[in-house]
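@channel sequence for tomorrow's demo:
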Amino acid sequence: MAFVYILKSGDRDAYKIGKTRSKVLDRMKALGTGNPDRLTVHDSIETSLADLATCETFLHGTLASKRITESDGTEWFRLTPDEIEAAIASARHYLATDVPRQREAERLAQVESDQTIIQPGDDEWKTYQRILELAERECLIGIELERLKTNLKLVLGTSSRLDGIATWKTHVRVALDEQALRADEPDLYARYRRSRRVRPFRLL
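C-alpha cells (generated this afternoon):
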C-alpha cells in the first residue's frame, strides 16, 4: 500500500500534502530536516499504488486556490481546520466511490458495443440536463481562464518567467510528420499502420 500524507507545520494553518510509498513517519522525518517548524502528521489516506497519484492530484487540484505561493514548493496549502478536514473527507469519498466507477467505465470502453438501444428514465434525463448545465459553465470558465492566462502572457512578452507566478519557456518538440511519411514512404507507412477499436462517448 501507499499513502497520501497531510503534514502540519508547527502551530500554523499550513499543511503539506504529498505522496509516499514508504511509511508516513519516515517521509515526515526526511522532510523535517532543515524545516524551522516542527512537522506533525495530521492525517494520511491509505491507497493502492494505482490510485496514489490520483488521490494526490485530486487534493492538489481541489485546493489549488489555497496553495502557499511564497515558496517554490507546490505541496503547501494554507487551510483552516474545517477546510482540511472537508478536503480529506472529499478525497476519501472520491477514492471509494468515483474512482471505481471510472475504472469500470474504462473497462467497458474496451468492450465491443452491441446494437441495443436503452430508453432513458427520469434519472438519466436529469443527469443529461445536469451535464449540459455543467458543460455550459465549463465553457464560460474556460473562456475566462484563457482570458486571464493571456493577460499574464502579454505581461511576460518575451520573458521566460513571471517570478512566483508562471513560466513561459520555449521548448523544442519532435513529432512524426505522418502526412510526409505517407507521401514519401507509402509502403513503410502502410506496414506500421495499425487499426484499433474505439468507443467514443458523445452526448446527443
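heads up for whoever presents: The mean pLDDT is 93.
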